[in-house]
Amino acid sequence: MMEQVENKQVIFRGYIEGAPKETDMEIKISRIQLKAPKGSDSGAFLVKNLYLSCDPYMRGRMRSSFTSSYIPPFVPGQPVEGFGVSKVMDSDNPNFKPGDLVAGLTGWEEYSLIRKTEQLRKIQPNHHIPLSYHIGLLGMPGFTAYAGFHEVCSPKSGEYVFVSAAAGAVGQLVGQLAKLHGCYVVGSAGSSRKVDLLKNKLGFDEAFNYNDETDLVAALKRCFPQGIDIYFDNVGGEMLDAALLNMRDHGRIAVCGMVSLHSYHDPQGIHNLFTLVTKRITMKGFLQSDYLHLYPRFLDYVISNYKQGKIVYVEDMNEGLENAPAAFVGLFSGKNVGKQVVRVACE
Fold first, then answer.
1. Which parts of 43-190 are beta strand (E)?
2. Mean pLDDT of the chain
């Protein structure tokens, strides 16, 4: 019998209300054979997880009711699941061979047995691009920015663009895509350090710390005296309400996320939706998965601009699987600066 090895795991303890806490997860040590089951068309393969992605959408998977959700909840007592970069160790799948690097959904554990390959893609190693970028800049967050900005916002050169949570995994790329498209871009973030990053590294024209503002409507009026053509919304809540009062006629709002929403069962209402009528605003929610046919075009565009130095990407890297719960929880209080990633192992 093949020797088993320890497999550290982050286990989801049970369904929650409100913002996640570290105690909603626990670290356990199980044991696993470093061998994929063979035969009977299993198609399974075993991977060693290298990098894991912490993303706000995962909070939705921590609630029991998913009748109106696009992705099922986590299973209590099982490892948390999310996007990761992994290395194939053993395989019964002809499409994935030992040594292959893959990006896609995996478990929050040191080793995972993968059976579903629909959302997995192979990575061709490139010394210009860090492996972790495949769950950030070149992964779901990057593609969310690309599809949301280019397909949902229908931008034109010279337009005025506002991005909330602008220093996060999605927002930082939205702003840069808007600048490459010839737009004027302002971002909001929750600290002076992030504001400095937006203006001095990510190329935003202006940025402000929403925690320093007593009146968000006035803050946006100051940044956009002529009004906002495009609002890329990552937060919802008061910021969305303030943006609605500052939109220009025929403005577009892409609703990407609502990270300010602390409870799904007691959501706060939006007060200024009447402006959709008076200003003929288009407001649309979207999922990046609706636009996957554009993924090859996105990769070509972003990699080309990254190699030319026209796009930069900021990561917040935590070391060790045991630190994954704290890294994830930190998303909801703005502790991360850039895309939150956990390094589980070196290749």
1. 45-53, 81-91, 101-107, 111-114, 121-123, 160-163, 184-189
2. 93
